Amino acid sequence: MVKKGFVVLAVLSMLGSGSVYAGREGSTIAQFLKIGSGARLAALGESFVGIADDADSLYWNPAGLANISSLEATASGAMLYEGIFYGFIGAAGKAEKLGGAVGLSVTHLGMSEMTGFDASGNPAPDYGAHDLAVAISYGRKVKPGVLVGGNIKSIRQKIENESAAGFGADIGGLYVLDKTSVGIAIRNMGTSMGFHEKSALPLLITLGASHRLRPDLLLCSDLNLPFDYHASLHLGGEYLYREAVTFRAGLRTTNISALGLVSALSVGVGLKIKSVNFDYALLPYGNLGTAHRISISNKFGQIHSGSADARGSARASGGSEPMESKPKAQFPQQPAAARPAAPAQPVEPKTSDQPAAAAAETAKPEEQKSAEQITLSTPTVSETEITKPAPAIPQVTLPAEPEKPPKPVEIPAAPAEASPSPAPSQAPTTPGQ
Asked: Is the pTM of this model over 0.90?
């Protein structure tokens, strides 16, 4: 019963990964390690080794972790067949002290309980099956355009009361040249493991490449060289519309001979809201039905860094500096004699007090003269300071100008003296008219 359950789980997991096992039974174990993470990559025909630009590099090519500049997290899931569920969770972030980026990921494949039968076909207790892999990853940039990385993972499989455990490792490299990048990944190297007999892990070598034709159009391809199956080609492309919606399509030749041409196609769509990405992929498997993949990822710190960049660019443009420099430039450039309006400030008495003010001014011509000198030399002096007592007058060193009449004195006094003069001057002119 245990062996039968293991065979069912292995076959279904291989279908989910797009790799129907055709070798001899028991040649490799832990087939769930072939199921790739992320709905985005599933829609691209499972070609990502040559891209490796986000947290899904934890599975596909750990060298791509060197491209991560902030904390990133991703989670994906898929309902396969007969109640089998696949899930992947990973997070990666920059580690400056280690000179690169580190990450942690968990892969799980489980199924609902199956009806049990013994060797004679009699009913037996129901049982379930679970596969689990936990990996620690590291990636760094060795020189401009050259990235390397790897991970170590713990692998465990369990069916009913039987279990198997082992360790594996992945290594990868990525070379980035302008709009084109090429990569290589060797996955599932490690120890043999098994329930009753030891078997090797599904070792896989993948060569990948990607090219960005335009800022909104990306093409990619992978060539898989597994040790337990024939080689397969994977092609994909994605188009970004208005920096928010992405349309994807892919082609994979893995199962064409077994499931037909339709099983080679894959399509998907992605939606970006701020720093969060939502992705969906549709994968047909011929007569077996259709698999759906969903995933969500977030680049923490993208909004913060973007707002900081915006503030930094505003400061770099010098937009706020002219507001501070304008008042500083006006005061030294304005001459003191260019502000004659200041002497008009003392002329604020009411019309009824004008004769008294004129008499006081004629009685103290020297004081008025000195007051004018004060107002001309210090244009910003207030009205209260002009009326201060005379001890402050000897400190003024500017020479007096007798030619200029005192403006504050003549302006109010002119109406009072001119009022009686018009009657006698106009009388002789009346008969002449």
From this structure: no
